[in-house]
Structure formats: C-alpha cells, structure tokens
Amino acid sequence: MGTNPQDALNRLIAAFEAHAQAARAADLADASIVEAAEARLRDAFFTYDDVLFNNYGVDLPFDVLEDDDLDDDDYDEDDYDENGDDDEEDDWDDYDDDYDEDDLDED
Predict the structure, then answer these.
(1) How far is 19 from 40, CA to CA, in rounded Å?
(2) pLDDT tens readout for residues 6-50
(3) Residue 33: CB partners within 8 Å, gap ≥ 6?
(4) 63 SS3 class
(5) Most buried pick, 35, 40, 57, 66, via CB within 10 A?
C-alpha cells in the first residue's frame, strides 16, 4: 500500500472528528448519518493500521471487533473445565492441597 503514514493518520483523525460531529447532530430517527460516519471511521482505522504495519512493522494496540466477535463473551461453566470433562470436583483438586480439616483444630 503506497499511502503516506502521516496522510493516513490525518484521515483517521478527520474520521474521528466527523464521527463526533455526526453523533452530536444525529437525530435518533435517522441513524444513517452516524452509520455512514462509522463506516468511514472503520475504513480510516484499517487503512492507518495497514499503512503503519507496512511502513514500520508496528501494529496498533487494539482491534475493531465485528458483531459476531461480541458473542464470545457468553461464558458458561464448561469454558472453565480444566480437564475437558464434566467432573467439577477434579478441577478443585489442585486447590485443596494446602488445606486440611486439621487446620481447624484449636489445639
């Protein structure tokens, strides 16, 4: 990609400013203005990220998530099963080694 990194950064900053302006002026009944600004911002972000990497080998410290990535936050107990089985008691075996009932005796 032959884009100058400074030009890509300037376009990204302008896209942020346009998005902020669209958000301030947005009518809730017509969200198309904000959606268009979001699309331009997303494009400017990805362009800047690509230019930065291609010119300097540097990635931005964050990523834009797609809507289907947001569903990954739905955790259940099986996500934390260390052994891959459904036996929850086995998962606690590692944590009870330093605790015994003798620890409760008041000798």
Answers:
(1) 8
(2) 999 999 999 999 999 998 887 766 788 899 999 999 999 999 999
(3) 22, 25, 26, 27
(4) coil
(5) 40
